[in-house]
Specification:
single chain; mainly alpha; 3-stranded mixed beta sheet; two-stranded antiparallel ribbon; globular
Length: 264
């Protein structure tokens, strides 16, 4: 049974067609198992589920404004093999997210917190960066790889401690990817916003707003920075300033170091 399981897993791996390609966003050669067509199909499927669950904002002028800004940013991100769409959802929460294949959603609540097109561009640029770097697809690849390794581990050992150790290792790897991805998306956002003719300092301005919004939210248990999925905002603000100005000021450095106590 173990040999049969191993054979099936290897066959599944060999059925993928990995292609090495240079990613302009990450500036690295990467092996991607999912074709662009597969990524777009996945994104379209997820987009349908999003639009079933959430209502789309009916403000046509707002939709056109967001799409105009988004398309400007997308044209500069270096990834031309997909069509980008930017959609405003009728949600009050201050949030935005990207799906594989070029789908970007931003809540009306986030737009209402902005004071200019520059800040809208800052929000959208961060999401465009995630798509350009293919972050979600690479996380999915990592997840598939882990599931295969997990099956092999179970086949090779009945020791529960072995399985728990594998789970912990995987969690740390995935957390690392996420933190790295967020920092890269912020750095690229600064670049895209500036190249599109908007004020790149808006990236920092809007994150400062997010920081104030988070402080007003109910208290949550604090976690060490190295075991959180996303870096705390003081860390992201400091990194964005480093990208924009080539340095961070003393307060940013201190906030980054004690961010466990700054955020909730």
């Amino acid at each position: 049974m173990r040999l049969l399981l191993f054979t099936l897993i290897i066959s599944a791996l060999l059925s993928f067609e990995a292609s090495a390609e240079y990613n302009l966003a990450t500036k690295k050669e990467e092996h991607i198992f999912f074709s662009t067509a597969s990524e777009v199909r996945l994104g379209r499927s997820l987009a349908e589920k999003v639009e079933e669950k959430f209502k789309i904002c009916k403000d046509i002028k707002l939709q056109e404004r967001v799409d105009r800004i988004g398309q400007q940013l997308a044209s500069l991100c270096g990834r031309k093999d997909i069509t980008y769409s930017f959609i405003v959802l009728k949600e009050d929460e201050v949030n935005a997210f990207a799906l594989p294949g070029g789908y970007v959603y931003v809540n009306k609540g986030a737009i209402e917190k902005t004071d200019s097109d520059d800040e809208i561009a800052a929000i959208l640029a961060h999401e465009v960066a995630h798509i350009a770097a293919r972050h979600s697809i690479k996380r999915l690849q990592a997840s598939i790889g882990y599931n295969i390794l997990s099956m092999l581990a179970l086949a090779a050992s009945k020791d529960v401690r072995f399985k728990r150790g594998a789970d912990l290792a995987f969690s740390q790897i995935m957390l690392g990817y996420s933190r790295e991805d967020e920092f890269l998306a912020d750095r690229l956002a600064v670049k895209y916003v500036e190249e599109a003719g908007y004020d790149p300092e808006a990236v920092i301005v809007f994150m400062e707003k997010l920081k104030r919004i988070q402080k007003e939210m109910p208290l949550k248990p604090l976690m060490p920075s190295f075991v959180r999925t996303h870096p705390y905002l003081p860390e992201r603000i400091a990194a964005a300033k480093q990208e924009l100005f080539g340095k961070m000021d003393f307060n940013d450095y201190i906030n980054r170091e004690i961010s466990d106590y700054e955020e909730r």
